[in-house]
Structure formats: structure tokens, C-alpha cells
Amino acid sequence: MAVTIEELYRNYGILADAKDNLSQHKDAYQAILDGVKGGPKEKRLAAQFIPKFFSSFPELADAAINAQLDLCEDEDVSIRRQAIKELPRFATSENIFRVADILTQLLQTDDTAEFNQVNAALISIFKMDAKGTLGGLFSQILQGEDIVRERAIKFLSTKLKTLTEDVMTKEVEEYVFAETKKVMEDVTGEEFVLLMRVVSGLRVLQSVNGRQQLVELVVEQADLEQALNPADPDAVDRLLQCTRQALPLFSKNVHSTRFVTYFCENVLPNLSTLTSPVAELDIQLEVLKLLAEMSPFCGDMEKLEANLNTLFTKLVEFMPLPPEEVENGENSASEEPKLQFSYVECLLFSFHQLGRKLPDFLVDKVDAERLKDFKIRLQYFARGLQVYIRQLRVALQGKTGDALKTEENKIKVVALKITNNINVLIKDLFHNPPSYKSTVTLSWKPVQKPEAAAPKRPSGEEMGSGGSTKKQITPLPRRDARQIYNPPSGKYSATIGNFNYEQRGGFRGGRGRGFGSLIRVG
């Protein structure tokens, strides 16, 4: 027979008045547990009464937790919310894992208020025992339903950074890193990005050694031991995502050598056949930009000359020869070569960076005929470049403030940065012997404000050439929409477009499970 409201209140009174003799009134507590079998009013009362006296009846602990779980799965959302709100009161030292496991499963709810209640309860028990709570979360991430796994990972990626150092101690952070590495043995692309957000924000990994450990984690995901299949969009996507995650970790002490080497040996030779994982993404330009951003942090490279030669060959491909002239000295009627400034900026910058490590490459490692051909291409490109730069400066002359914020003028500003960068780098290569001393800020990177003892500010005519910038390590790579400067045809025409790359899967197969009942952990 179901317990009535009156009986619940009567038994509550017995327990409340018992004070130090609570353990003698086991029957009264059992009657309150039976309240979960009653109607909505009885259940709401039971949801409040059960946790209040929970700690006084250890022999009924399992029965009490299971009774509260029944209420957490009730059809009435108000009863569920009340039961969830009280769950942290069951999180004693021996039960913390179990409660965390239950709350993690409850993240699968589609009711917003209930979902927020679960989040609040998890945060509450985190502050009681962070490591025990993480045990329950990671248990579900590794073994739970796909929807639970997905939401548990998102919880970690958004909530851990809000917890204070007294909660997220060194021991707790090391546990997070160890468990995350287990999860990363089998992840989707989106999960990988979210988990990198989790571990990149850990204070224990902010040292050079910590950053190196993070790079090793990304290297494992990138599978750099395997040759790249350019026709496989998932393989290309994996490489792109891993490289993006690694980029903010690189510095003068944490080198990008393995990634740069892989790009030179596996990506550049297949550049034209790469299959884009996203239709609107210019995959060739995206790859070249990643290579350019990594190149300043490349350390000692085993096959430097061979990789420089690959880079040089690819650069030459994007720098056309001048059109043939007919007998009267005029250009033939054939179409003018295409000047792909955005591609050339990336390749020239990367070549310039790696060339510093082997400054005699163009002098001793390239035969005379090939070098002569390269200089002809450089001269032709430089002539076209000067015309563009003059046109862009005239178009931007006198424009300030809001006038520079129009879409058309923003495109011209980016174009001027690109062309100025190329101009600076070409001038270095025209030195005899070639020089690698100039520094530029890549056109899509923000120009960092100089500090007190910084060199003089560049003049308007040097706009875009920039200066050396200090690498700032951030917990999470940030990808802004990049503007592309890529003349489609003709000698002095250009178009620029924007793209916004959306992350997708490809790291870990789906497990094909749906929404299910709570799994009771005993």
C-alpha cells in the first residue's frame, strides 16, 4: 500500500525529533523511501526528505540512492528537477563517483531547466571532490551512450576553466590530462577540438614541457608516421584540424619541425590533388597558410635541403614566366599569366624562413639554369607587384576611420599587406648573395602593438610589411575568417573572398546508440 502525505509528514517528524537517536528509527526512514511509489505530491516530498536523513542510515544507502534515482527518471519534469537538485547531498566520499556518474547520464535531457539543474549539481559536487567527480564523468565519456559522451565532453570544455585553483589542484589537473589521453585514443574531429580546449587550459601544462606534451598528443592524432592520401577528405581534415590545434603551442622552445617536415614531404607534392573536406574551402591556400604560420618555429630538420628544394619547386610553380614577346617587342595576344599573390605570400614566407637555416641554398644547391629561371620569374612578379601596390595606395590614400571599414576598402587593405609582404621578401632574395634578414607579419595575422622599447613605427608606404612579432601562446587556437587575395586572371586584376571553415568528424566512428535509461552504478 502506497504511503500517504500524512504518513510522510509523520515519519519526517519522528526523524526530525529523534536527534541523536535517529538510527533507532529505521522503519520511519524506510517509509519515506516508499514515498517514491506514491503520487506526484508524495514523490515531491520524498525527493526532499530522503536526502535530509540519508547520512544517518548507511545500511539503507543503496536503497536511498536508488529511490532518488527513480525520482530522477520520473515522467513529471518538476519531480525530476527536485530530485536532481538534491542529488549532491548523496555525494559522500564513498558515493561521489556514483553520484557523478548518475548526473553525467542525466546530461542527456532535452529540458533546458533540467539540463541547467544537472550542470549546477555537477559543479556543486566538483567543489566537494573534483577527482571523484571527474571519475564519474570520464567513466561515461569512455563507456556511456553517444549523447552522454558528447555532452560530458562539452561540459568539461566549458566548465573546468571556471573552477578555482583550490578545486583544480595540480593532482586533479594531472588526472584530467591522463584520462583525456585515454579518451583521445578514439575520438571524432569535434571531440578532439573540445578535448584540446580542455587540456590546453590546464595550468599544469603551461610550461614549455607541458606544451611539448600537448604537441606530442596532437602528433599522435595527426598520425604523421603515415603517408597522406590526398584523395581522402577525412585524412586531409584530420591533418588540418591537428595542425590548427598544434599551431598555438609552437614557440622558439616548442618546435614545429615534425609538422613542417610532413607538409614538405607529404602535402606539397600532392597540393593540387588534395580533396577539401568542406566545399567552399580553398584547400590549397589553407594548407599553405598553415605551413607559413608553422615555419618560423621549425627546429633542426634532418632533410633540410630536400625539403627546401620541394618548397622551392612549389614556389616556382606559382610564379609564372613573363609572356613571350613577338618580333616587334610587344606582348603576344595570349592571356596574361595568373598572379596568385595569396599563394605566393605563403610559399615565399615559408621558403624565406627555412632558407635562413641553409642560406647558401640558392647559391650552391640550385644549378645556374634553374636559378636564372627563378630570377626571371621573380622580376616579372615584382613588376606586377609594383603596379598593384601603386594602385592600392592611390585607392586608399587619405582614407581613415569609417572609410577604411567598408568591405571594399578592407579588402584593399589586406591586399596591400599581402603585396607589401611579397615585395619585402623578394627584395631579400634579390640580394647577392640572397638575404633572409627581413621580417614580415603574415597578412591574415593581427599586427601586435609594439612595447615601450619597440623599433619605430612603419610609415604609411611600408604598411603591411610589419615587424617581428612575439609569439603568444594561448590555451585555444582561434581561427578568424581569413581574407584571400587571389587574382583570377590577367596581369593586374584581383578578387578576394572570405571563408569560414566548419569543423567536422572523421577521427572516430559513431557508436550507434540511442537515448536509454540510467545505468545504476553499485
What does this structure look like?
With about 525 residues, this protein is mainly α. The chain is built from 20 helices and two strands. The protein has a two-stranded antiparallel sheet with strand order 1-2. About 15% of the residues have low confidence. This is Apoptosis inhibitor 5. InterPro entries: API5, ARM-type_fold. Keywords: Apoptosis. Belongs to the API5 family.
Which properties best describe this structure?
522 residues; two-stranded antiparallel sheet; mainly alpha; 20 helices; elongated
What are the SSEs and their pairings?
Layout: H1 5-18, H2 26-33, H3 40-52, H4 61-72, H5 77-86, H6 96-105, H7 112-126, H8 130-143, H9 146-159, H10 170-183, H11 189-200, H12 208-222, H13 233-246, H14 257-267, H15 283-294, H16 304-317, H17 341-355, H18 361-365, H19 368-396, H20 407-430, E1 482-485, E2 496-499
Antiparallel strand pairs: 1-2
Report low-confidence residues grouped into runs of 5 or more: 450-506, 508-516
SSE sequence, one letter per element: HHHHHHHHHHHHHHHHHHHHEE
Sum up the overall morphology in one term: elongated
Helix percentage range = 40-55%
Q: Can you summarize the main beta sheet?
A: 2 strands, antiparallel
Region (Disordered): 447-489
Pfam family, one: API5
Family: Belongs to the API5 family.
Protein name: Apoptosis inhibitor 5
Q: What's this, in brief?
A:
53% of the residues lie in helices and 2% in strands.
